[in-house]
Amino acid sequence: MSEPVSAVRVAVIGLGAMGFGMAASLKRAGFDVTGCDVTAAAVERLVALGARGAATPAEAAREAKIVVSVVVNAAQTEAILFGRDGVAETLAEGAVFVSSATMAPEAARDLAKRLEATGRHFLDAPISGGAQRASEGQLTILASGSAAAFAAARPALDAMAANLYELGHEAGQGSAFKMINQHLAGIHIAAASEAMAFAARQGLDLRKVYEVITASAGNSWMFENRMPHVLDGDYAPRSAVDIFVKDLGIVQDMARAEKFPVPVAAAALQMFLMASAAGMGRDDDASVARLYGRITGTVLPGED
Question: Out of 65, 113, 178, 246, which one is annotated catalytic?
Fold first, then answer.
């Protein structure tokens, strides 16, 4: 794309923790950004950075060359594309729709086929890295799609990602890679939560446990990132319990279809399901530690 980025209109649909950071990164890089979200306050917050606001996906996509969709799942993505006031009503032929939702690979393939039949491009591009990296333009993007889709989306991808992986020429491959990541991420959160609650039951200084483990072989990115929430007794959602109910559920569905056993992921899914059933579904996913505490009568910070 030879034109300056200031002449490239990018619509970002979904301005939650990740989407807002991605939109802010695009704006900082010089793009003409339009944001859309079901929450008016999120749109207003983006407009305060100098971006445009839109009331519907169709309005946001009008005159956009790139649409970045940052919603939760395949159903929401389908509604944004083909529902009432959907992107497909107004998106110009040759423009690209970048789908960052976590979904089953077959869902991504189906959505891509339907959109590409209308003369637009679809890039399957789930994301990883968290809200902080999103706001810094330092995400990892796991993308697959046609060469034309990559070419159309690349300027925006470069502004949002520190690591862009090109994982195949067809939609679905990016989503398959993301599900392997979510398989591990969910297991690691559940394991970290179990270990921290177990440490509390032993009467250990939890801040010292965190210090020791993050310098030892048992550390993981999820332990290091999520366990400060437990130490602070702060379960305001950065990534919610119900996200992993969904994602590990997709892992289970994929594995069952292939007759492939995933018993560790199945155990982790049950912990997230129990946390959700206990009323923590919209709380931070580190709430699995709270669940352990409540089941065992173990006191965690902020829970006494």
Answer: 178
Domains, the chain, in order of start with CATH, read 5-170 (3.40.50.720), 176-296 (1.10.1040.10)
pLDDT band, residue 3 (cuts 50/70/90): confident
pLDDT of amino acid 2:
59
Radius of gyration of the chain (CA): 20
Task: Name residue, tokens 């919209």.
Answer: 282
Q: What is the mean pLDDT of residues 47-54?
A: 97
**Does residue 213 register a pLDDT over 60?**
yes
Give the confidence band of 4 by pLDDT, cuts at 50, 70, 90. Answer: confident
Largest CA distance in the chain: 62
Q: In sequence order, what are the beta bridge partners of 161?
A: 139
**Whether residue 178 lies in the annotated active site:** yes
> What mean pLDDT do residues 151-162 have?
96
The span from the first CA to the last CA of the chain, in angstroms, equals 57
What are the CA-CA distances from residue 270 to residues 115, 209, 288, 291 (Å)?
36, 26, 10, 12
96-99 vs 32-36, strand pairing mode: unpaired
